[in-house]
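User: Just a sanity check before I run the rest of the batch. Below are the structure tokens for the first item. I only need the designed sequence back.
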């Protein structure tokens, strides 16, 4: 039995009325797939589902700690009740490119952010993913002494060296939080000028996006190296 409450509107796309022998019959039908898609409420980015996470570790040989840091957007698949389409991406990379991923369809306009795309079925426990963007997850983690040595190695005014960061206020890169850029100050030795200028910046396609935001300047490579090392470590976010 269907009833309408006061103030509600009846969706006439759901039924057909047929008059036969003076009697009206109502036949309830289904909405088209297109209409269902339009009204489907898509969820926002979330952790990669366990079934897919296990697949990435076992079949794609990704580090479990790294897989936990990536995000997924999903939508129901028309192939089955327990099947879902999925896209895997790095949220930090999206932030570096100033792309806000709200749901599955957000990535239609930014396909370069999709690392894996495919489907999974919670019922049959099947997973099928295609690699869309190859990402270099391997990066050298330098010691403080090595960082200091590289800073001292820049000799020409305006020359720079950068280090990927795992902590900070910027984004992108293999460690997730952009890069620290150290420049040999082209105005040194000017009045009140120090030898090195330190910046932080986003990373896109493994390279810093310009110098970025200036944080401080210093004459002491050891102090700079200590500061860099504090955020230059295994990825956490």
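Assistant: Here's the designed sequence for the first item:
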């Amino acid at each position: 039995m269907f009833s309408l409450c006061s103030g509600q509107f009846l969706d006439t796309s759901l039924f057909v009325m047929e008059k036969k022998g003076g009697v009206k019959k109502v036949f309830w039908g289904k909405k088209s797939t297109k209409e269902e898609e339009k009204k489907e409420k898509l969820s926002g980015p979330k952790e990669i589902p366990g079934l897919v996470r296990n697949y990435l570790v076992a079949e794609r040989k990704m580090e479990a700690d790294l897989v936990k840091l990536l995000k997924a957007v999903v939508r129901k698949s028309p192939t089955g009740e327990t099947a879902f389409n999925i896209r895997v991406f790095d949220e930090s990379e999206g932030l570096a490119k100033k792309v806000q991923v709200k749901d599955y369809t957000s990535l239609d306009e930014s396909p370069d952010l999709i690392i894996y795309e495919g489907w999974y079925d919670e019922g049959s426990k099947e997973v099928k993913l295609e690699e869309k963007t190859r990402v270099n997850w391997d990066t050298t983690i330098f010691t403080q002494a090595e960082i200091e040595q590289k800073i001292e190695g820049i000799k020409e005014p305006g020359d720079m060296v950068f280090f990927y960061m795992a902590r900070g206020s910027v984004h992108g890169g293999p460690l997730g939080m952009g890069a620290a850029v150290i420049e040999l100050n082209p105005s040194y030795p000017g009045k009140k000028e120090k030898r090195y200028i330190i910046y932080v910046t986003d990373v896109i396609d493994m390279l810093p996006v310009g110098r970025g935001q200036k944080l401080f300047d210093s004459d002491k490579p050891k102090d700079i190296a200590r500061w860099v090392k504090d955020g230059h470590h295994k990825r956490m976010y």
